[in-house]
Write a structure and sequence with these properties.
Largest sheet: 2 strands, antiparallel
Number of strands: 2
Helix content: over 70%
Low-confidence stretches: none
Radius of gyration: 17 Å
Strand order of the largest sheet: 1-2
């Protein structure tokens, strides 16, 4: 079983994102360490759901070649299902996750940018529009702490980019237009809910 180059780039992007988050967040070391631990926990949950969904969607292949399923390319549908199942699983700890909201979104923004950059440099994959979009998103997150509204605006921009060259992929998974529309609406609703809580 060979490890795909795109998998190595995903891992490298997450490591680089963790480094940027550690340097960019001005809170105490304990807070940053807990943020990384919680993010890693969510990521492991997502990965387990992803593998589970992948096994279900490639069941005939699993029966014939059990280990080859891990190297078998995954699609966007597995990404969607794993993400939905992770949200449902982690919903119980929403208060715990709210504490690290900025760190989570910064880690995601960094990962998306570094993955797109490394993919273009090493694999010559992706569009310049994607790289610019993820760079602007990351810069906005670093400069402004209103991460929910920035993420919602990013999702709208990603949806609009369908007319330029298709919606940007996330970590190598090509997203559908409706995905960015749903994410935008969800983030605007969450932002509105948090504003009401502050009043």
């Amino acid at each position: 079983m060979t490890i795909q180059p795109v998998t190595i780039i995903r891992v490298a992007s997450l490591v680089m994102a963790a480094l940027v988050m550690w340097l960019a967040v001005s809170k105490e070391t304990g807070h940053k360490k807990r943020a990384l631990e919680q993010f890693s926990s969510v990521l492991v949950t997502w990965a387990l759901w992803f593998i589970g969904v992948k096994i279900l969607t490639t069941w005939p292949l699993v029966l014939e070649y059990p280990l080859s399923v891990l190297a078998y390319p995954s699609g966007t549908s597995e990404f969607y299902l794993a993400s939905l199942l992770t949200i449902i699983t982690e919903f119980r700890g929403k208060e715990k996750h709210r504490t690290f909201q900025y760190e989570y979104i910064l880690l995601l923004a960094c990962s998306f940018f570094f993955f797109t950059l490394l993919s273009q440099l090493l694999l010559e994959r992706g569009e310049l529009v994607e790289l610019v979009l993820f760079f602007v998103y990351l810069a906005a997150i670093l400069l402004c702490r209103q991460v929910l509204i920035i993420s919602a605006l990013f999702s709208i921009s990603a949806a609009v980019s369908v007319w330029i060259g298709g919606p940007p992929s996330i970590m190598g998974y090509r997203m559908d237009l409706w995905f960015y529309v749903v994410i935008s609406l969800a983030l605007f609703l969450l932002w509105n809910f948090e504003k009401r809580r502050e009043v």
